[in-house]
Design goal:
Layout (H helix, E strand, L loop, with lengths): L8 E13 L14 E12 L2 E7 L11 E4 L4 E4 L1 E3 L11 H8 L4 H6 L4 H10 L2 H17 L2 E7 L6 H13 L3 E7 L9 H19 L2 E5 L7 H13 L3 E6 L7 H7 L4 E4 L5 H8 L4 E4 L1 H6 L7 H7 L3 E3 L13 H10 L5 H7 L2 H6 L17 E4 L6 H4 L6 E6 L2 E2 L4
Parallel strand pairs: 1-4, 1-5, 6-7, 7-8, 8-9, 9-10, 10-11, 11-12, 12-13
Antiparallel strand pairs: 1-2, 2-3, 5-14, 14-15, 15-16
Helix pairs in contact: 4-5, 5-6, 6-7, 9-11
The structure holds N-(iminomethyl)-L-glutamic acid and fe (iii) ion (FE).
Amino acid sequence: MSARPGDRRLLVRDLAQLVTPAAASAPARGADLGHVDIIEDAFVLCEGEAIVRVGPMHELGTVDGEVEELDGRGRCAIPGLVDCHTHACFAGDRVSEFALRAAGATYEELHARGGGIMATVTATRAATEDELLQAVERHRGWMLRAGTTTFEAKSGYGLDRETELTSLRAVKAAGGVATWLGAHAVPPEFPDADAYLDFALREVLPAAAELADAADVFVERGAFDSDQARRFLTACGAAGLALRLHGDQFTELGAVGLAIELGATSIDHLEATGDDGVRALAESRVTAVLLPASALFLSRPMPPARKLVDAGAAVALATDFNPGSAFCESLPLVCSLAATQLKLSPAEALVACTLNAAHVLGCADTVGRLAPGYRADAVLLDVPDWRYLAYHLGGPIVGDVVLAGERAELR
Ligand code: NIG
Ligand code: FE
């Protein structure tokens, strides 16, 4: 990404700290995951949508010409956060189910009773295209306020042709990276998962492949088994989509092996993954996307994050923002959970939701670092030490967000 003559300029100056992943390439693995470069008393200079310089204030010199300045005193800059796994395109809510769960019902019980994902499918099918776009934009505003400057969002609450394609269009119109979660659940109008997949691959895939970057499948009892997932993903891969899986959330059903076999970009969740799965992922190119807010929200075991990182697996963090299993759009909160529950260091957490998350979305060359040539996306934390990102549990730490070289309006 390069600047053009005459581009507007923004200088963020006098930052207490500027922090960016140190790894030379993406994804960062093993010890590299925990390495960040820290510049004290720093500046970032942006031209147009790109970062052109970063460094310590004593190297800034004079900046000629017109430049807008943003005061960084008492603040720390980190790269704009990248949420590589959300279900931000949905209508309605599941607050009543949440209350039932608080009173003891389980997520699986609600799903088996026709609630859960299917409840949101009913609400999403009833929404107009405009209402869905407004919903994604509202959710995007929440994410931005929490420091997320790049987000992925999945379809998967339509499960009919029209609503799936409308969902993908809404995600793209709101500036997101779209994933076709065409195999999220089996809607009741089909007798079984295979009949639904016949329809989805024949009637929806050709148009979905034009809109989405990736395809995703929920491999779980009551959703899709690994043979059905193989069939779905193989067809999606042949249509040019990157492949992702929801795997090992409740049960190990072979999703890790399938992800590796098919050369998937990521496998996400992994709360139930055992040591064999950890070893296999460490030897593979598949990124493990961990979603601790979902495990917390459902009172489920946390994924084996420490084991994955120590074994050398590529690990990313995301929110899983959705109305049922993780009504949480905050990556800073996910970083706090990573430190307190997953035993990752603040540096590992930061790299996992910047550089490594960008790798999952195929954009690690342009986002996820504060460095010349990258898109000028930055979060200015109102904190004296950048590690407050993980330390201040749920705290109001995001002061300003710079989005493509401009100070964003936070709503
Ligand atoms: O990632 N596990 C499947 N899908 C989502 C939950 C969707 C929902 O409950 O609405 C997840 O947790
Ligand atoms: Fe999910």
